[in-house]
Amino acid sequence: MDDLIKILKELHPEVDFESCTTLIDDKILDSFDIVTVISEINEEFDVVIPAEEIVPENFNSAKALYALIKKIEDED
Amino acid sequence: MNLTSAEFIITVIVLAVLYYIVPKKAQWPLLLVGSLGFYYVAGRSYKELIAHPSCPPQMIYILVTFVTAFICAYVMGRIDGKAKEYLAANKGTISKEEKKAFKAKAKSRKWAVLLIGLIIALGLLCVTKYTNFVIANINSFLKEGSRIKPLNIIVPAAISYYTFQTCSYVIDVYRGKTEPQKNPFKLLLFVTFFPLLVQGPICRYDDLAPTLFGGHKLEECNISQGLTRIIWGFFKKMVVANRLAPVVIALAADTNSYRGTFVFILMLFYAFDLYCDFTGGIDITIGIARVFGINVAENFNLPYFSKNIKEYWNHWHITMGTWFTDYIFYPVSVCGPMLKLSKWSREHLGQKVGKRVTVYLSSLLVWFTTGLWHGAAWNFIVWGLMNYVVIMISQELEPLYAKFHSKVKIKNTIGYGIFEIVRTILLMSMIRMFDVYRNVPLTFKMVGTMFTKVNLRIFTDGSLLNIGLTKPDYIVLLASFAIILTVSIIKARKGYVFKKETFAVRHFLLAVLLIAIVVFGAYGVGYDSTQFIYNQF
Predict the structure, then answer these.
(1) Minimal Cα–Cα distance from A18 to chain B, Å?
(2) Cα B368 from chain centroid?
(3) Which of B253, B262, B344, B414 has a CA-to-CA distance to A76 between 20 and 30 Å?
(4) Which of A42, A43, A54 sits opposite B330 (nearest CB)?
(5) Candidate from A32, A39, A51 with C-beta closest to B331
(6) Residue B14 · residue B294 · CB < 8 Å
(7) What ipTM is given for this predicted complex?
(8) pLDDT of residue B48
């Protein structure tokens, strides 16, 4: 989880990613950020997040995103 | 057929009356019959029939798109269903690896079906819309006598809209987000729902289906809200867009007389014209759907209050933007080769540049296709690429902006906010000049004259009264601008317009608007040519 927070913090240092649950709803992360995060996750976790998983529920919080990474890891 | 034509209005009224007379179960079939009738009439005009007698009726294209989508979704649903059955039956008996391999096989079969569906649907769009553009470009390199003959083909009405809408349905079924529609007639209604065939919005199946197929009883709120949107749309279209459209055409046509500051005037006129034309048309579309109790996605959210181009594109033609993001930008950005490229770029070009490669390449593809979607012409492609360039430059300048704002504390002042809004409007309006002149070198030349041949005398010497607008026209336009701006400010502050006002106040204001449309609407011979601008895309 710490590695993921680090990736997100690099994009938006001003955001409290531990507690924020409206990253997409409040337009904190835009499409450019999402693609950058996915690319970083691929690099850091060796996990490929497919396009169909790019939905607000998976990206609204760091916790939800981390759960998605774990789910994909488990499936692999 | 024009949304503001008498035939269209009468058709909608008759259909709405029948809609609430027939049993609820018969409402969506009635809409289907109405939609097919509308497309049949609107899809092929008498003029086109004479010009292209050998062309197949446009109805064939929309039906092929629908049949393809239905079969593909059905087959993908069967593959999914069988896979679930197999996995449930063998739960506990097959290993994790076997389960994974089975899922991968099912997914690759679905992918093949999706690919066939997309090739057919997008193939029809490309062949009808872009073949002659490609031929014309090839011919520009060939000598007289060896040139290829253009195809005798008509671009089917609304093909860009219904193809995108249908593709989104098929892709969502592939992704497991949408259940395949088992009733072909319901899917046919989704593809052909008539208000959307004029100029969108490009709706998603899951958003539209619940209210499109559900029965509706006659409710005052639906009729009242629907009529409010329709009247508001008519006001923008009839009073402003129809008044400005002939002037825009005239100013753009005579490039010798109208240069310099006239180009600036043309730029502002077109910005106001397009806004009222497109948002007005969408208001009418959403209003008509509302009268039938159907919720259609919003396509605008105060775009001219945006503080930068990126924000503008999140608020203008929203359904097209989200379509490109969801079905082109994301899949391309996160596909295997792109992730490999990203990795390679980081290793060879450094972290800073490497991180940007994916986003920049995918965005380039998105803006190229966005331009192409608007029309088979270089001016639209260049228009798309100009948007791309401006967005990327502002993206790159963001750290610089942040540095500036950390030193100069003006970001949250009203003055700076207004500056950002005006800057965005002017920048967007300037890029849109490619749409006005429809010729890339000419656009650059004419926009250049705006800065090199400044002639402020045209504001005082009566020139602006000789371009097709009289003093009363200017008064009507200024008053309309004030009304639209006031409504927009109210919406921006409260999030809604017309909610807490009493029934009497609301209907009084609507009656005033209706009278304004009748009295100040631009009708007649000079205005007949003003179809909806986005109808041609």
Answers:
(1) 24
(2) 15
(3) B344
(4) A54
(5) A51
(6) no
(7) 0.92
(8) 58
